[in-house]
Specification:
The protein is an alpha+beta fold. About 20% of the residues lie in helices and about 20% in strands. The strands form 8 sheets. Strands 18, 21, 22, 24, 25, 26 and 27 form a 7-stranded antiparallel sheet that branches. Strands 1-2-3-4-6-5 form a 6-stranded antiparallel sheet. A hairpin with a 2-residue loop joins strand 8 (about 145) and strand 9.
Length: about 575
């Protein structure tokens, strides 16, 4: 439980905010109090993604799923706002830590306790499946250990039997390490995939380690498909059951009824001494606003001045505790069902997705992109029209981080891969440059560093080959470079969120520069990350580039042709580099 920030609202709808509970895949989760005094958990999706139909579809599906699944193993829906931004849902607040936090604090569960938890979670999934719903994102972060037993949360990508998938071709729902192989390979989602996630979740609970190891997303996903789960040191009977649940072939996994039978529990999980210690490890929740203020969870509110209208969430609403009015659009402003919310967060994308490594091969130290024709159709974040030979006479000061980007670079560690030691990109769509484009990335501080490896600063170089042969300086052709970390970054900390998700935005971009800067001598334009990069958000926020060490892994570099204003750009080429853990 964390303190509210100055920019957090004081109210959401009819609810008075008391604290932050954490960040989910769609947005921020708050602890709040209803007018009648009931504690609720409110998830508000970030306003940066409310314009994405896929995001709204996922959120609405979550609301409908939680509304439909009235189970003893889920937090029941209390209220929701679906008609206009800001979009949010409120569920009953459940005291207790997540399984992930409990294991981090107390360590791995004893075998007997793990078997009881195994049976309880299997029963919870069976209850959800009874409503015709598969969860699709079961993991330790989505299990709350209440005193009465575990509850499942976060149905953002849950799917009914008659639903169609919201994910796109080549992307899989779920979280690497817990997503079943058939989901990653061909997006075959069904109850057996939840059984796989159940086994992986219990492996983490029984070992305290990631079920398929740590590291870059693509490495974890490879192990899920091709290697065994980490159950070293686990009691043999429990290890055998985990192994059965994570069988590569979904047809070989046991049913949930069979899992419960094999656990052969003889007493309730709530009576287990170790579980009792885990479930009591959550922080005490403040019961009202004065208690939250006394605990330091609510910041000092600005002086109250009556706005043009009261922050109502319905006829006759008056906040239970605290100021009835706050300045409109000021820090800590009330959020109702129609009031827009201003946020400084970086863009979030709809689901945690595993991007399979596809696309064209690309060199790293220095690459050549031959002139292409017949570029693919328009794709979010790429642009589909062919690049014009010329650009604006005066470029914008920056390009906006205002669209989804599914362009990724992956380092190759397979000796059989033709890009071994470097890597490849899966640039989606893009435009054709008018001339032969050369570009590369190197370590700005250590020229002798291995190819595709950077430690602190990256030097990015690019040019049009043979530009110096032009008799006269060509018309300007403006290029901005986007450097994207592996994961979504929390703007408050400059580091990935606790629940890591692949980055789906442009990352940090450079000021547009004319690629013909050195046309007389054929030299390269050179930029340095992080020195020359920032992130410019659609609502005016600007964030400095984070240090490379903040997010080890595979970083992606995309070149954008700027054709007009801050939102007029299209991708040209892609490369990347790897940042090792310190």
């Amino acid at each position: 439980m964390d303190a509210l920030r100055d920019r957090d609202p004081a109210h959401i709808g009819a609810y008075t905010l008391l604290a932050r509970l954490g960040a989910g895949g769609m947005g921020q989760v708050y602890l709040a109090r209803s007018p009648g005094g009931r504690l609720v958990a409110i998830k508000m999706i970030r306003d940066e993604i409310t314009d994405h139909p896929e995001a709204l579809a996922r959120f609405r599906r979550e609301v409908e799923t939680v509304r439909a699944v009235r189970s003893a193993y889920t937090a029941n829906l209390i209220d929701a706002s679906l008609d206009a931004a800001p979009y949010w849902l409120a569920t009953e607040y459940v005291a207790g830590p997540t399984l992930a936090r409990a294991v981090d604090q107390w360590g791995a569960l004893p075998a007997d306790s793990a078997l009881r938890l195994f049976a309880a979670l299997a029963e919870a999934l069976a209850s959800v499946h009874g409503y015709g719903v598969t969860h699709r994102d079961l993991k330790p972060q989505n299990v709350i250990l209440s005193p009465q037993g575990p509850l499942l949360i976060d149905f953002g990508i849950a799917r009914g039997a008659a639903d169609t998938a919201l994910t796109q071709t080549g992307l899989a729902p779920g979280t690497p390490g817990y997503t079943a192989p058939e989901v990653m390979i061909s997006n075959q989602v069904g109850p057996a995939a939840d059984v796989f996630a159940l086994g992986a979740t219990l492996a983490h609970a029984a070992t305290g380690r990631p079920p398929f190891g740590a590291g870059p997303t693509h490495a974890v996903s490879y192990r899920v498909v091709h290697e065994g789960i980490d159950i070293e040191g686990v009691e043999p009977g429990l290890a055998a059951l985990i192994s059965a649940c994570v069988a590569k072939d979904p047809a070989e996994r046991p049913s949930l009824d069979a899992v419960i039978a094999r656990c052969a529990v003889t007493s309730a999980l709530a009576e287990d001494p170790f579980y009792e210690r885990l479930s009591s490890g959550g922080e005490a929740a403040p019961q009202d606003l004065p208690a939250a203020v006394a605990a330091g969870l609510v910041p000092q509110r600005p002086p109250m001045t009556p706005p043009a209208y009261p922050p109502t969430a319905g006829p006759g609403y008056v906040p239970t505790v605290g100021p009835a009015y706050v300045p409109t659009l000021a820090p800590n402003a009330t959020v109702g069902t129609t009031q827009p919310r201003r946020s400084r967060r970086t863009p979030w994308v709809v689901a945690v997705a595993v991007a399979l490594v596809v696309g064209t091969a690309s060199a790293v130290a220095l690459r050549t992109l031959e002139d292409r024709s017949g570029a693919e159709g328009e794709e979010a974040g790429s642009g589909g029209s062919a690049a014009a030979t010329t650009g604006p006479k005066k470029p914008p000061a920056y390009i906006l981080n205002d669209r989804i980007s599914r362009d990724y670079w992956r380092h190759s560690e397979d000796p059989q891969d033709e890009t071994f030691g470097s890597g490849r990109c899966n640039l989606i769509g893009g435009a054709s440059p008018p001339k032969e484009l050369q570009y590369g990335v190197s370590d700005a501080d250590d020229p002798s560093a291995p190819i595709a490896t950077v430690t602190q600063r990256a030097r990015i170089s690019f040019r049009f080959k043979y530009a110096e042969l032009n008799e006269h300086k060509p018309d300007p052709y403006y290029v901005s470079i986007g450097v994207k970390p592996p994961h979504e970054i929390d703007a408050d900390t400059g580091r990935p969120y606790d629940v890591m998700m692949e980055s789906k935005n442009l990352g940090y971009t450079s000021r547009p520069v004319d690629i013909y800067t050195h046309w007389k001598d054929g030299g390269y334009v050179e930029l340095t990350y992080p020195d020359d990069f920032e992130s410019h958000m659609p609502k005016g926020e600007t964030y400095p580039a984070i240090p490379l060490a903040n997010d080890p892994g595979d970083w992606t570099v995309v070149m954008y042709h700027v054709t007009g204003g801050p939102s007029d750009y299209e991708s040209l080429a892609c490369t990347g580099f790897q940042v090792g853990s310190s």
